[in-house]
């Protein structure tokens, strides 16, 4: 592709005629230039999708891809990639050229298959082949190309002609490295991914709303051992406002628990696993993040008909008591080993009686959800190390580092979390501070951690008997007003605690990052840090005000935010992509102070 600077483009002049938007204009005076990391893009109104708030998503993805490069290098050194993975295989250049249109940049020259995995001394891994399946302006693709040295090629794909034109302009604007590496493609991502089986080491799926329609082809286009990164912004659906819609999209029923953001992650993971299983493939989650108004998962994909047999044992249904905070996991499958031979059996159940043993109410059943760990601690350590070593290259360093730090402290083998406020709401009592509550759990001999998905979340392997006993002991010194006897809280408090809670300080129960003053729940830099409407929509004051997002969205979201509940309905893009904790980063909020008022 001809190298063309911003100045050169300016000199070419505008082709815009009066009253008509000329999407092919190459005159930079028609646009504003936006810089993020090392990439620059040309922006004009809402021609092509751009959301500043997704800088966190893009920064985090760059950190994860860099960690992936380190992991891959280690695996190659230790010979792990040799047979197992497709990571060494070159892109099928014949197929690739079919997709190129006039003016597109040819892909990196690929080496012949002869070179592939031959000798015992493993050559260094080849440069990464990245697919940005929903590229819009190409900003993310350009950042991968320019900021990650060992990225060899990036296919920036979009089915919107205007977006592809914009991507081409932006490639030109970004100089020779971008031109050599980034290849714009105009296609439907689903078709493209289906016809490029196992061709990409890294695949990024970053749609408006739900990724569900892309999952089946996405799991097929990732090379063995490759990385799939997937965003979902349809949080209202994933968090349980329209459970039936979630079921049709993801094959799982969500519940409206306080843990709904982590449940959303686990629903998405279960859905990706289910699509992968159809092709004898399985996922290994390395990082799963709930941030601002969306979730994003990073999973590796491998092929193994044998390992796929274990998939049902990695999923569980979830029973949530309708009267109190108790929840239980019911595994879908289990593995029984006899003489070292695994047998794959259906889950044994039911794991609970029909009535909650704490409050006597019934249960709702959700899921199936992914009930194995959702992060890999080695990856988290690598990501944090990598970020700290080049913090200046991350424009959203504070926030991204905070989120990953919070994740690094989560208990890995404890799905979901309790909310201290919700426990107190059930009992209608004042709340102990999170620290005091955590001391009591640790003193009872159990583990406890916070959750990155909610500043008020508490993960613990303590059973609900222990949790309610701790709360009963708390209430003995902080009495509640008389309540009707049939309320769940009254039923729970009518029983004497078996355990005598010890609320004295235990350092091990507290966040190490917090003690060191490392922020975890970092405030967003601006007001209206939220989702954006689809590209091409006319923006009016109804949608935006000068800062970005409007009252219409805020009004819709504010009630949900206050109530910590998902939005009522998946509707217009502006609304569908908002979630409960739009502003959850408002502070390093751990409820250290005693609260007189609790959720009702
Ligand atoms: C949210 S934007 C992507 C933002 C981009 N990843 C970034 O970081 O700036 C979603 C894009 O997906 C594109 N898109 C939607 N459906 C598609 C499909 N079936 N195939 C390819 N692109 C699609 C839209 O045109 C839009 O540009
Ligand atoms: Zn109950």
Automatic annotation (TrEMBL):
<dbReference type="GO" id="GO:0002940">
    <property type="term" value="P:tRNA N2-guanine methylation"/>
</dbReference>
<dbReference type="GO" id="GO:0005634">
    <property type="term" value="C:nucleus"/>
</dbReference>
<dbReference type="Pfam" id="PF02005">
    <property type="entry name" value="TRM"/>
</dbReference>
<feature type="compositionally biased region" description="Basic and acidic residues">
    <location>
        <begin position="74"/>
        <end position="98"/>
    </location>
</feature>
<protein>
    <recommendedName>
        <fullName>tRNA (guanine(26)-N(2))-dimethyltransferase</fullName>
        <ecNumber>2.1.1.216</ecNumber>
    </recommendedName>
</protein>
<dbReference type="GO" id="GO:0046872">
    <property type="term" value="F:metal ion binding"/>
</dbReference>
<feature type="compositionally biased region" description="Basic residues">
    <location>
        <begin position="9"/>
        <end position="18"/>
    </location>
</feature>
<dbReference type="InterPro" id="IPR042296">
    <property type="entry name" value="tRNA_met_Trm1_C"/>
</dbReference>
<keyword id="KW-0479">Metal-binding</keyword>
<keyword id="KW-0949">S-adenosyl-L-methionine</keyword>
<keyword id="KW-0819">tRNA processing</keyword>
<comment type="similarity">
    <text>Belongs to the class I-like SAM-binding methyltransferase superfamily. Trm1 family.</text>
</comment>
<dbReference type="InterPro" id="IPR002905">
    <property type="entry name" value="Trm1"/>
</dbReference>
<keyword id="KW-0820">tRNA-binding</keyword>
<keyword id="KW-0862">Zinc</keyword>
<feature type="region of interest" description="Disordered">
    <location>
        <begin position="74"/>
        <end position="125"/>
    </location>
</feature>
<comment type="function">
    <text>Dimethylates a single guanine residue at position 26 of most tRNAs using S-adenosyl-L-methionine as donor of the methyl groups.</text>
</comment>
<keyword id="KW-0694">RNA-binding</keyword>
<dbReference type="InterPro" id="IPR029063">
    <property type="entry name" value="SAM-dependent_MTases_sf"/>
</dbReference>
<feature type="region of interest" description="Disordered">
    <location>
        <begin position="1"/>
        <end position="24"/>
    </location>
</feature>
<dbReference type="GO" id="GO:0000049">
    <property type="term" value="F:tRNA binding"/>
</dbReference>
<dbReference type="GO" id="GO:0160104">
    <property type="term" value="F:tRNA (guanine(26)-N2)-dimethyltransferase activity"/>
</dbReference>
<keyword id="KW-0489">Methyltransferase</keyword>
<feature type="region of interest" description="Disordered">
    <location>
        <begin position="572"/>
        <end position="600"/>
    </location>
</feature>
<feature type="compositionally biased region" description="Basic and acidic residues">
    <location>
        <begin position="581"/>
        <end position="600"/>
    </location>
</feature>
<keyword id="KW-0808">Transferase</keyword>
């Amino acid at each position: 592709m001809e190298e063309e600077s911003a100045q050169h483009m300016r000199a070419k002049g505008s082709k815009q005629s009066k009253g008509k938007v000329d999407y092919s204009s190459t005159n930079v005076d028609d646009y504003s230039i936006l810089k993020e990391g090392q990439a620059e893009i040309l922006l004009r109104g809402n021609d092509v999708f751009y959301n500043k708030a997704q800088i966190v998503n893009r920064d985090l993805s760059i950190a994860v891809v860099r960690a992936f490069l380190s992991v891959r290098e280690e695996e190659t050194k230790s010979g792990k990639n040799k047979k197992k993975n497709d990571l060494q295989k070159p892109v099928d250049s014949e197929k690739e050229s079919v997709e190129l249109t006039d003016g597109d940049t040819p892909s990196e020259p690929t080496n012949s298959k002869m070179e592939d995995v031959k000798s015992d001394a493993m050559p260094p891994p080849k440069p990464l082949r990245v697919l940005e399946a929903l590229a819009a302006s190409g900003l993310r693709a350009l950042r991968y190309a320019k900021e990650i040295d060992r990225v060899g090629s990036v296919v920036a794909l979009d089915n919107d002609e205007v977006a592809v034109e914009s991507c081409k302009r932006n490639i030109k604007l970004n100089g020779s490295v971008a031109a050599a590496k980034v290849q714009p493609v105009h296609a439907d991502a689903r078709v493209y991914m289906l016809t490029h089986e196992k061709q990409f080491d890294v695949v990024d799926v970053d749609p408006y709303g739900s990724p569900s329609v892309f999952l089946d082809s996405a799991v097929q286009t990732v090379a063995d051992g490759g990385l799939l990164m997937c965003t979902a912004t349809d949080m209202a659906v994933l968090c349980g406002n329209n459970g039936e819609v979630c079921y049709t999209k993801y094959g799982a029923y969500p519940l409206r628990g306080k843990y709904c953001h982590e449940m959303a992650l686990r629903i998405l993971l279960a859905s990706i696993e289910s699509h992968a299983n159809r092709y004898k493939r399985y996922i290994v989650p390395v990082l799963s993040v709930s941030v601002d108004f969306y979730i994003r998962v990073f999973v590796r994909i491998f092929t193994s008909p044998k390992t796929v047999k274990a998939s049902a044992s990695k999923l569980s249904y979830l029973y949530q008591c309708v009267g109190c905070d108790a929840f239980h996991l019911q595994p879908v499958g289990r593995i029984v080993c006899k003489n070292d031979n695994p047998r794959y059996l259906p889950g044994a159940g039911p794991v609970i009686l029909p009535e909650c043993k704490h409050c006597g109410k019934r249960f709702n059943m959700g899921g199936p959800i992914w009930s194995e760990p959702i992060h890999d601690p080695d990856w988290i350590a690598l990501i944090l190390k990598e970020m700290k070593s080049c913090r200046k290259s991350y424009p959203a360093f504070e926030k991204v580092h905070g989120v990953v730090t919070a994740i690094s402290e989560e208990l890995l083998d404890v799905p979901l979390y309790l909310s201290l406020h919700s426990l107190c709401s059930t009992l209608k009592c004042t709340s102990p501070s999170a620290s005091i509550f955590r001391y009591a759990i640790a003193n009872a001999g159990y583990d406890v951690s916070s959750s990155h998905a909610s500043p008020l979340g508490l993960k613990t392997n303590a059973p609900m008997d222990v949790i309610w006993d701790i709360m009963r002991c708390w209430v003995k010194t902080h009495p509640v007003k008389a309540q009707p006897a049939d309320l769940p809280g009254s039923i729970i408090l009518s029983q004497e605690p078996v355990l005598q809670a010890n609320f004295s300080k235990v350092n091990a129960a507290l966040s190490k990052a917090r003690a060191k003053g490392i922020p975890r729940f970092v405030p967003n830099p601006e007001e209206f840090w939220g989702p954006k409407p689809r590209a091409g929509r006319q923006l009016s004051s109804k949608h935006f005000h000068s800062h970005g997002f409007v009252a219409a969205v805020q009004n819709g979201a504010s009630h949900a935010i206050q109530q910590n509940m998902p939005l009522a309905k998946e509707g217009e893009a502006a609304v569908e992509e908002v979630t409960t904790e739009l502003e959850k980063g408002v502070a390093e909020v751990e409820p250290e102070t005693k609260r007189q008022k609790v959720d009702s």
